Automatic annotation (TrEMBL):
Residues 82-237 form the TACO1/YebC-like second and third domain. This is Probable transcriptional regulatory protein Heshes_05150. It comes from Alicyclobacillus hesperidum. InterPro entries: Integrase-like_N, TACO1_YebC-like_2nd/3rd_dom, TACO1_YebC_N, Transcrip_reg_TACO1-like, Transcrip_reg_TACO1-like_dom3, YebC-like. It is found in: Cytoplasm. The lineage of its organism: Bacteria, Bacillati, Bacillota, Bacilli, Bacillales. It holds the Pfam family TACO1_YebC_N.
Length: 246
């Protein structure tokens, strides 16, 4: 999509499937923890928790892990306390990065992330230095199979969506953050199935890099995603196989 880069395929090159699975479970559990801590442990009334649980189940996080994490967050089970942070930085070739963090020790995390940047030709930036290059928005990915584009467009716009972007295999419904929940609920009530729904940071513009330069950025993002406290990395880089939709 014209959206953020999650770099899904990078990790596979390492062949560390067990480690990657453990890191993914850690990130999914932190997402559930934060959602339950802020909005309560009932997914029927806590939209963010519902999304987090659905994502965790889709990635095979055991039900016991989910229940235990919610119990910790709601105080029925002792555990650590996490906080959400947003780091900003510059990578090689002036690439802008936004990094969503969930950590129980911000000093440890800051040191780890700073070391990763320094080792790979980047640097952490002051608050606000990079964030202005990105727009916060909701994105709901609807598979094309069995979906009429015009009907989805009409339904989404009437519910408050800003746009519906057509991709090769899916439609992406774009919303303002404050309208994300109501649009998703409207799609659910209309029986529309979706593969993913989340709030993301979308770069206002993207930069193109040579293959060599892009590989340097890959290495930085890959290293950041290897950090357990990093949830998501967003960049303003245009991927080699990505079509512009702006």
């Amino acid at each position: 999509m014209s959206g953020h880069s999650k770099w899904h395929n990078i990790q596979r090159r390492k062949g560390k499937q067990d480690a990657i699975r453990g890191q993914l479970f850690t990130k999914l559990s932190k997402d559930i923890y934060q959602a339950a801590r802020e909005g309560g442990g009932n997914p029927d009334t806590n939209f963010r928790l519902k999304v987090a649980i659905e994502r965790a189940k889709a990635n095979n996080l055991p039900a016991e892990n989910i229940s235990r994490t919610i119990a910790k967050a709601t105080g029925t089970l002792e555990g650590v306390t996490y906080e959400e942070l947003l780091y900003e930085g510059y990578g090689p070739h002036g690439v802008a990065l936004l990094i969503e963090i969930v950590t129980d020790n911000r000093n440890r995390t800051a040191a780890e992330v700073r070391h990763i940047f320094r080792k790979r030709g980047g640097s952490l930036a002051e608050s606000g230095a990079v964030a202005w290059m990105f727009k916060r928005q909701g994105q709901i990915e609807v598979p094309k199979a069995g979906v009429e584009g015009d009907e989805l467009m009409m339904l989404a716009l009437e519910a408050g969506a800003e746009d519906v972007i057509e991709q090769e295999n899916a439609f992406v419904v774009v919303t303002a953050p404050e309208d994300f929940k109501q649009v998703r609920v409207a799609l659910e009530e209309a029986g529309v199935k979706y593969d993913d729904a989340e709030l993301v940071y979308e770069p206002a513009t993207k930069i193109e890099l040579s293959d060599e330069a892009l590989e340097e950025v890959y290495e930085l993002v890959e290293a950041l995603e290897d950090c357990d406290d990093v949830q998501t990395v967003y960049t303003n880089v245009k991927m080699g196989d990505e079509e512009e939709t702006d």
